[in-house]
Amino acid sequence: LSRMYGPLTALSNVQVDVMTALVSFDRVFEVLDLKPMVADRPGARPLKTEGAPGVAFDHVVFSYPAAEDVSLASLESIARADSAPAKEVLHDVSFTVEPGQLVALVGPSGAGKSTMTHLVSRLYDVNEGAVRIGGQDVRDLTLASLNETVGVVTQDAHLFHDSIRKNLLYARPGATEEELWEALAGAQVRGLVEAMPDGLDTVVGDRGYRLSGGEKQRMALARLLLKAPAVVVLDEATAHLDSESEAAVQRALSTALAGRTSLVIAHRLSTIREADQILVIEDGRIADRGRHGELLARGGLYTELYRTQFARQETLDPLAAK
Ligand code: ATP
């Protein structure tokens, strides 16, 4: 997401923080006076689901929209000098995340992992095939119900320049004081806020109380806990993997993902070890799939990714290195 919204930072003084993690896209577009790439179809229905629904990609083919579509989602394409022909980014991608399960995406940079997560929250529509939540094509669902069902946490978890209370209430207006503290506790950040001079009324952000990257991600997880979506799409932060907060982030993640259907771009050893299924993405295709042990045993690209991205965490990550 941050990639997609990047050019906007230069184009506008609007508080771009608004546009990341867990926001209602309707409101963002209102602020920016731009149209999203997708809209409710006539006859769109709210998502009906009891408990966490499954998520399925069914022969999905996808290219980013061409540059001439002047809209938020294609600003990045416009910014690209070589944007003219729409390059196919995902080719015939099929997989299922069963209700309540965790599927991890791994793969080289540019393979298409973020693009897959964008399609779950329907930032774009597929060219062919379908993305389904609870068996229902996301194009047949109202964007409002999709926004309620799918919680998105990006790598770069931004907070508004405002109090912690307001930052949290944005995820669930009307949450009680007790619920706010409960969410902070679940996200392993309660002690931090309790120790701040103004507690929940402490102003955070670039011009306020400065949180570390790991703390920001845990605040985003507190917002996720308040929003309590049935489906979570998460891009794990890479920047703070070896910090002392690693164990806390890990506990916060386990709490935030428990009982939800999760699609996670994995950077943590603990996540790939716990994943019900790992999808190895290469050049817009699923090159391999399975659990950590079986993929490692097969060798190939996964073993290579493990060596370069995850193996060094064996020593850094005492909880995961069992
Ligand atoms: P990383 O690990 O570096 O984040 P990724 O696996 O998430 O990479 P994607 O961001 O999904 O990969 O990118 C897949 C392909 O789509 C790349 O070729 C990328 O250049 C292209 N791409 C990504 N976003 C856009 C966009 N908004 N417009 C056009 N092309 C895009």
Automatic annotation (TrEMBL):
Membrane topology term: Multi-pass membrane protein
GO molecular function: ATP binding
Every ABC transporter domain range: 73-308
UniProt keyword Nucleotide-binding, yes or no: yes
Origin superkingdom: Bacteria
Location of the protein in the cell: Cell membrane
Major subcellular site: membrane
Alphabetical UniProt keywords: ATP-binding, Membrane, Nucleotide-binding, Transmembrane, Transmembrane helix
Statement: the UniProt record of this protein carries the keyword Nucleotide-binding: yes
Name of the protein in its database record: ABC transporter ATP-binding protein
Species this chain originates from: Actinocorallia aurantiaca
